[in-house]
Design a protein that fits this description.
This protein is of the alpha+beta class. The chain contains ten helices and 23 strands.
């Protein structure tokens, strides 16, 4: 059996191969299943009839491979919002995202008014060394206009094999003429952990859970302890707001960083024998320093595993708003020629036995952000429960909608300020909800 990866996040099977697999299974099934097998065969014959009718009668000659892939994807997406088919490119992209490194230029970009705008260059990368600045507009990539491309299409054009070159045309606000820059791609490390000292408190943000997250977190905690001083250090703020999740083993590793013992998470599939449990195996690297975890409506999946485990063990105080509610596990199963299926195979449960699916985690202390006037009414994340076809909570406690706004200026970040005050023993200021922030999609490339 090929090894599969567990994700908390998104098969070129020919029709004959699919039928062969079903046929083998039915031949070895118990006689009681014969009627069900017959019904399935009739449905497969129906699929074959429709497939042949499309091939013979559609107004234009269709691509057989794409038809089969679309049928497979339709079968998977009918199950729940997180099951899907990944063709070879999608599978490679997923592997890049979880590995945490890729061949590229080192620019974080976003789409603004149909143009690709630089948020910031990453330090010590081809982009930063070439002098690319925050606010630059990329208008052409290798002489091809960017306008009309999606963000992902533009990023794909800038990424590529290490040591290959790409030419960017850049418009800068204070320059009359465009800049023409030729950059050579290098290995770019995705920074899933960002940190800084906040006087006597260590601030750590996890933006996603990739293969390097646990190691980067431990390095960040060690650096903060040295920079602030162990005697002065009041504790840590672990910011998981708007973190969409990632790898299950990294969520477990992050929990193990703060726990000495006990269960971290368990997963339960359709069959009782599929239940799995993970326990803490190391010691708390912070040696008991206080921890405040920030969560909001954008904290999902692996973020919720961490928040739930630390909350159940009373190892951290959760502050913010209710999390997204993605409590299902996806298994990535390679199939066919470099493709894969992402299949929901289990629900996960916190140490106390809570299912977070379509419900989320409630913080210990609810603190709402003060919303700027221009964003009022746009600060709400709908949550898992709002997704069509979502798995319900096993106790029927589906909840949706929670504030997901985060202030870009730390001095105006109500939740961060409250977390710092809590660690310093000060009174906490709360605010009332005023209302989904603009969903600005960003990419590193």
């Amino acid at each position: 059996m090929r090894k599969s990866s567990l994700l908390l996040l998104g098969a070129m099977l020919g029709a004959s191969a699919a039928t062969l697999g079903l046929e083998t299974r039915f031949l070895t099934s118990e006689p009681a299943h014969a009627a069900a097998a017959g019904d399935t065969y009739r449905q497969l014959n129906l699929f074959g009839d429709v497939f042949e009718r499309i091939r013979s009668d559609y107004v234009e000659k269709p691509d057989d491979g794409k038809l089969v892939e679309a049928a497979i994807n339709g079968m998977l997406t009918s199950l729940d919002p997180h099951s899907s088919y990944m063709d070879a490119k999608s599978f490679r992209d997923m592997q890049v995202n979880t590995k945490g490194e890729f061949g590229g230029l080192g620019i974080e970009v976003t789409m603004e008014d149909g143009l690709i705008k630089v948020i910031s260059p990453i330090a010590d990368t081809p982009a930063s060394r070439a002098g690319i600045l925050s606010g630059d507009i990329i208008t052409q990539i290798d002489g091809d206009a960017v306008q009309g491309l999606t963000l992902n299409q533009a990023v794909d054009k800038m990424r590529g094999a290490v040591k290959t070159s790409v030419k960017l045309t850049i418009v800068r606000k204070d320059r009359k003429d465009p800049l023409e820059l030729k950059l050579t791609r290098e290995i770019i490390q995705v920074k899933s952990v960002k940190f800084r000292p906040e006087d006597d408190v260590g601030y750590v943000q996890i933006t996603q859970f990739n293969e390097q997250t646990t190691e980067n977190l431990r390095n960040a905690l060690d650096t903060l302890k040295k920079d602030i001083g162990d005697d002065k250090l009041k504790g840590y703020v672990l910011d998981l707001r708007n973190d969409p999740g990632g790898l299950l083993d990294q969520a477990i590793g992050v929990c193990d960083t703060f726990l000495d013992k006990g269960e971290i998470v368990s997963t339960r599939g359709r069959n009782p024998e599929d239940t799995k449990r993970w326990d803490a195996r190391h010691t708390d690297v912070t040696k008991g320093k206080r921890v405040v975890v920030l969560i909001n409506g954008g904290s999902a999946s692996a973020s919720e595993i961490v928040a739930g485990a630390l909350q159940d063990h009373k190892r951290a105080t959760l502050l913010g708003t209710r999390s997204f509610g993605k409590g299902s596990v996806q298994t990535i199963i390679p199939v066919g020629n470099d493709a894969a299926i992402r299949l929901t195979t289990a629900r996960y449960y916190t140490p106390s036995g809570r299912s977070i699916q379509a419900k989320g985690i409630e913080p210990d202390i609810k603190v709402l952000e003060a919303i700027p006037d221009e964003l009022k009414g746009k600060d709400e994340a709908k949550g898992e429960a709002s997704l069509r076809g979502h798995l319900s909570n096993d106790k029927g406690e589906d909840l949706s909608a929670s504030q997901a706004y985060v202030a870009t200026d730390p001095t105006k970040d109500t939740q961060l300020i409250a977390a710092l005050d809590l660690l310093r023993g000060k009174a906490i200021t709360k605010s009332e909800p005023t209302s989904e922030p603009p969903k600005v999609e960003t990419k590193e490339n």
